[in-house]
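ugh ok fine here u go
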Amino acid sequence: MPGVRGVSRRTTVVATALLLLAATPAAAQTVPGRTVDPSGTFVAIYENDTFSGNDRYYTNGLLFAWRSPSYDPPAWLAGLTERPNLLFPSGGVARWGVALGQKIWTPEDTERHDPDPTDRPYAGWLYGSLTLMSYTPTALGSLELQLGVVGPSSLAEQVQSNAHDLINVPRAEGWNYQLKDEPGVNLILTRQWRVNRPTGVWDGVSVGVVPSVTASLGNVATYAAAGGMLRIGTELEADFGPPRVRPASAGSVFYQPVERWGWYAFAGVEGRVVAHDISLDGNTWRDSRSVEREPLVGDASLGVALITPWARLTASYTIRSEEFTTQREPAQFGSISVAFRF
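structure:
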């Protein structure tokens, strides 16, 4: 598949150029009228289809992420805010972060030793990421570079099998047919906006929207997405929505509350135009199982977030439309996260 190989090479070149551009020395700065944050944020995210009573398709996701404080960022990072562009909002404060994540996919029928060739292939994606971001009270831009591996080295079979043993659930039988080992690289650009208004009915309660656009380029996932989230509650200025495992709308790992306690409820939708998905299209350079991908995929989510003096807790439920042509019904899964400031 020379086209996909070309995409992978171009992704690496573009990622290197953008990171070098961001590394140009610049004086650290603060944003007038915006209190910089001396605290970083650590978050753990767990997604699983068990919350829907199923065990199929996108079946498990884990993400451990850290975001730096915005107080006195390094000169090379502060330089992001000095170049007005379509990604990073002008006059923003900068943060950077790292993450480690894993995603697991299985077919609908996991009892077959030789899986149905028209069903979703077994696959896993283990990756690390580096994120550079800048934000203002009304906008956020982020650049994320993911590097990892698809295939047996992703440890997807071991993680799922051990988890099933722990809860006394039968193991999936077809992992011998999972995608083969392949290095993966993805470059993801996201821009979000935030508009909040007091309800005028309940004291301290606001209503807000968080529109977003995303572009992903790489040999693991290439897509363009647009969506929006409606929120109602308190502390809407603390973040840009709950953190999620991509390709779901990612929200923000960091949170910066004003009060000790807060909450909000949210509902969101996102649509994606998908040009490549290795978990469906199969390996780039080697023969593997594959199915015909749907070019248009949509998510609908709802949930709640609770901000306490000790942590931010979020829970959400997502329905994802069919991702391949022979998929019989939408995928459904739940997501929970806990974040700490330090």
